[in-house]
């Protein structure tokens, strides 16, 4: 087996908070216990929300926590070509189709929700004829590309992945993936030729990641990642899902909810040791 390699992969669409600190510390601690190393990856495919200032702040905050990493740091915004190549592989296998639906249309038509609670795409554009697809593409209608999950699963059959827990040194356990509960996920967005699901799978393989540490809120997303790994002929790492840091209201911390950032805490006099103690390190 290759030397264990892990990664911490934040998005620079805001400042890091205590939840990010926990995730980073879990990753570096796991790498040390496994006798491996940890990488930093900047997941900045959302070019509208991700900012260079936030990316720089990530480096500063992690260094303040006492963490270091090999250079250079991989930035996903530099890797649209390999993501497009992976999407084209799926397209040639007739597993990717264009979707012209707006969010409002999906919300109106959906009869169920995905594991994140979002309206589950009902597969509207999967049933368009080739002539309709070509006409709309040539017309320049806004388009994103979705995975035909049902067809993909018919080819792969049952999927499993290995989970390590509750500690990183425990014996791996086999779990069954259930990608069907996500429906036909978007793999190429309207604004960029990729998505979180596609990019993370391509990059984990390209960087040789052997163990993925994630918060429990991302556990369900592993269903799609395992499916993509099989379809693209990529290795599947071990997975470890850690606890979440929650606020006084019982909800997980989030940039979108205005959770105090590490920079805010530092300005209030917190030390790196204070942060470590607060998240259980």
TrEMBL record:
GO biological process: glutamyl-tRNA aminoacylation
Domain Glutamyl/glutaminyl-tRNA synthetase class Ib catalytic residue range list: 7-262
One Pfam short name: tRNA-synt_1c
EC numbers on record: 6.1.1.17
GO CC field: cytosol
Example of a GO MF term: ATP binding
Record keywords, A-Z: Aminoacyl-tRNA synthetase, ATP-binding, Ligase, Metal-binding, Nucleotide-binding, Protein biosynthesis, Zinc
NCBIfam families in the record: PRK05710.1-4 (NF004315)
Family: Belongs to the class-I aminoacyl-tRNA synthetase family.
Name this protein carries in UniProt: Glutamate--tRNA ligase
């Amino acid at each position: 087996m290759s030397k264990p390699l892990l990664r911490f992969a934040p998005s620079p669409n805001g400042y890091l908070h205590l939840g990010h600190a926990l995730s980073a510390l879990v990753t570096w601690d796991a790498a040390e216990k496994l006798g491996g190393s940890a990488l930093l990856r900047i997941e900045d495919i959302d070019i509208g929300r991700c900012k260079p200032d936030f990316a720089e702040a990530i480096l500063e905050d992690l260094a303040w926590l006492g963490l270091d990493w090999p250079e250079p740091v991989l930035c996903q915004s530099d890797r649209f070509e390999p993501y497009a190549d992976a999407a084209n592989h799926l397209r040639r296998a007739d597993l990717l189709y264009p979707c012209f639906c707006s969010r409002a249309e999906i919300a109106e038509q959906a009869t169920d929700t995905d594991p994140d609670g979002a309206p589950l795409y009902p597969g509207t554009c999967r049933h368009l004829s080739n002539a309709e697809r070509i006409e709309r593409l040539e017309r320049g209608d806004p388009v994103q590309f979705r995975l035909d999950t049902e067809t993909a699963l018919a080819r792969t059959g049952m999927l499993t992945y290995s989970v390590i827990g509750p500690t990183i040194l425990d014996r791996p356990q086999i779990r069954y993936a259930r990608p069907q509960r996500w429906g036909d996920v978007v793999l190429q967005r309207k604004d960029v030729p990729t998505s979180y699901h596609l990019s993370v799978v391509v990059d984990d393989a390209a960087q040789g990641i052997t163990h993925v540490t994630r918060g429990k809120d991302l556990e369900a997303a592993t269903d799609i990642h395992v499916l993509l790994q099989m379809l693209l002929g990529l290795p599947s790492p071990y997975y470890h899902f850690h606890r979440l840091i929650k606020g006084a209201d019982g909800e997980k911390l989030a940039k979108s909810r205005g959770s105090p950032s590490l920079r805010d805490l530092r300005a209030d006099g917190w030390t790196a040791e204070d942060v470590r103690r607060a998240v259980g390190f």
